[in-house]
Amino acid sequence: MDSSKLRDEAAAMEGWLVALRREFHAEPELGLEEHKTAARIERELDRLSIEHERHGTAVVGIVRGAAGGPTVALRADMDALPIQEASGLSYASRADGVMHACGHDAHVTIALGAARWFAEHRDSLKGNVKLLFQPAEESVGGAESMIKAGCMENPQVDFVLGLHVMPYLPVGMVETKKGALNGCSTTLKGRVRGKGGHGAYPESAIDAVLIAAQVIVGLNTLVSRYVSPLESAVITVGTIAGGSRSNIVAEEVSFSATLRATSDELRDTLAARARAVVEGVSAAFGGSGELDVRYGYAALVNHDLGVDIVAAAAAEVLGPDSVAWKEKPSMGVEDFSFFIKDTPGAFYHLGCGSPEQGKRSPLHSSTFTLDEACLPLGVAMQVAATLKYMEGYRG
């Protein structure tokens, strides 16, 4: 791989990439509603003579190399957020209350840029490149449904890469981590039942509010008592509802909480302990309790080889000091985790921060913007990492 030539070829795409990204930015769509986005992606793939298929709003393209070799998948999430844009950009969202506030417009654009490069070099490509344009990362999670629809098969994906633009990193930097990069998510919905009665005669009732209070205290001790100080987890009770009047002992109280952990195994342990707390504390006070546990995204655990390939690619196309190593995993979730669960690969962050500090609004904010100079660098990174795997890089 000639990294200098690759950088030049990616840089030559910049005008096209910027125009494409601004087009996507102006027409954002929420999860599972990405019909216009998917159609625009398909038109671009058609223009590049890349075969593709649709599954709902998901698009899967494939560039088949002339020479035999492994299949590498590049994932790009494409949904927007229910946020009213306040960036003041000339190409700001034209959809009321919907905005690309997490940079997915850039992810789609970078994937199409990589697709263009591979299409133009398919005669020398030693393998295949799959392009996974994924819906609903911000909501119900589109990764699992794409996997169930067979996006990782025919041909079987051997290696998978994903990226996310990150405004706290300057353009020209990437960030990643071996092992757990993002936590898993679980929603807990609990209900405790007692016996209603008059507030002046508590001995004749069983107070569900009191039970719920003890349950919540118990839940908030689980991390400190059942999680090693060397691991990370959090349980946050976000809602509680119950009772009707100040002088009536409540018969029932419901609550909801989020559970985050850096491994699926730790999640399972804490979920089981949480259920034991709800049921056991409620019974101890003469009532009853139940807990509904709903698993969300799995923990995103990078493979060492994938991270080594990303770091090596960055050193070649961005420079020797371009990699920032994330010390601790984030408790934010990312459903790229499902793509990487049974397939080697890596996820990394691509710097998109402007040199002007005032423009570094965080992800998910109504004023989020990115420095579009990151777009050709993202293309170069995805291409370089893909080629490294195809060429047999193993550290």
Structure description:
The chain is 34% helix and 27% strand. By secondary structure, the chain is α/β, with parallel strands linked by helices. It has 2 domains: 3-182 and 300-390, Zn peptidases (Aminopeptidase, 3-Layer(aba) Sandwich), CATH 3.40.630.10; 184-295, Alpha-Beta Plaits, CATH 3.30.70.360.
Gross morphology is: elongated
Distance between the termini: 16 Å
Low-confidence stretches: none
Q: What's the SSE pattern?
A: HHHEEEHEHEEEEEHEEEHEEHEHEH
Rg, nearest Å: 24 Å
Q: Total number of helical segments? A: 10
Number of strands: 16
Largest sheet: number of strands, sense, barrel closure: 8 strands, mixed
Calculate the mean pLDDT score and round it: 96
Q: What is the CATH class of the largest domain?
A: Alpha Beta
Assess the beta-strand content as a share of residues. 25-35%
Helix share bin: 25-40%
Tell me the domain tally.
Answer: 2
Which descriptors apply to this entry?
395 residues; alpha/beta; Aminopeptidase; Alpha-Beta Plaits; 2 domains; eight-stranded mixed β-sheet; 10 helices; 27% strand; elongated
Secondary-structure blueprint of this entry?
Blueprint: H1 3-12, H2 14-26, H3 35-47, E1 51-55, E2 58-64, E3 67-77, H4 104-120, E4 126-134, H5 143-148, E5 159-170, E6 174-176, E7 179-182, E8 184-193, E9 197-198, H6 208-226, E10 233-242, E11 248-249, E12 252-261, H7 264-284, E13 288-295, E14 300-302, H8 304-317, E15 323-325, H9 336-340, E16 345-353, H10 374-390
Parallel strand pairs: 3-4, 3-5, 5-16, 6-15
Antiparallel strand pairs: 1-2, 2-4, 6-16, 7-14, 8-12, 8-13, 9-11, 10-12
Helix pairs in contact: 1-10, 2-4, 4-10, 6-7, 8-10
